[in-house]
Predict the 3D structure of the following.
Amino acid sequence: MTRVAFQGEHGAFSEEAIYQHFGPDVTTLPSRTFEDIFLAIEEERADFGVLPVENAVAGSINKAYDLLLEHDLRVQGEIYLPVRHYLLAVPGTRLEAIRRVRSHPQALAQCEDFILQHGWHAEPWYDTAGSAKDLAAHPEPDLAVIASRLAGELYGLEILAEDIQDMRWNITRFFVIAHGEAPPADRSKTSLVFAVPHRPGALYDCLGEFAQRGINLTKLESRPRRNRPWQYVFYLDFEGHWQDPICRDALVGLLSRAAFVKLLGSYPAADE
């Protein structure tokens, strides 16, 4: 059976994304950190990993992108998961008794308006489902957690409020990572990271390799370069597979202009 690693405890949104992509016949492997997902694959304890990379409300998950640069695994797929957040507490808890709310920092950011409206103190935790699991094991009368409905059911918590995310179209994008390449699909997308020389027009010239060939870019974001203050790398997604002749030509042009290029992978484009 296919083994897929994810960050968090059983009931995490990442686990929901796994079932959406792979179906029910899969073994899910909880991991404490994003780094542990990569290690599980590299040590052959998992065949794939599912890694959240950006959210429609809170933006990119920087640690995930940093790890994609540092490790040599490839992106083999993407998943778009509608994320519905639930306020969970120990059974019998009244909403009026809540003073603190605990969850993963991304979930807290996605529910910021709801938290501020109630004047609660937000406590960052390592995982949404992990916060639910810990509350069930160590009940606190003034504490609620933000997690999935599945986490509430798994750990016996009561729903105090549902759909508490700030935006109704709260969607998280995940990458499926593994060794090796995904074969070309009818609709493919490619992700890469590159840096440019320090000269006027360098970024313009790099992006021009795609523009002059009519290749559509779907993401462009800069990140500070690790251990190199005030230097940046650019994460870029474009439509097409790197093996497509027009995309291959654009990449050859990019290689001639950029300071470095790392291909993260080409994969089937998911419906958003």
Notes: The mean pLDDT is 96. The chain is about 30% helix and 35% strand. The longest helix spans residues 245-257.
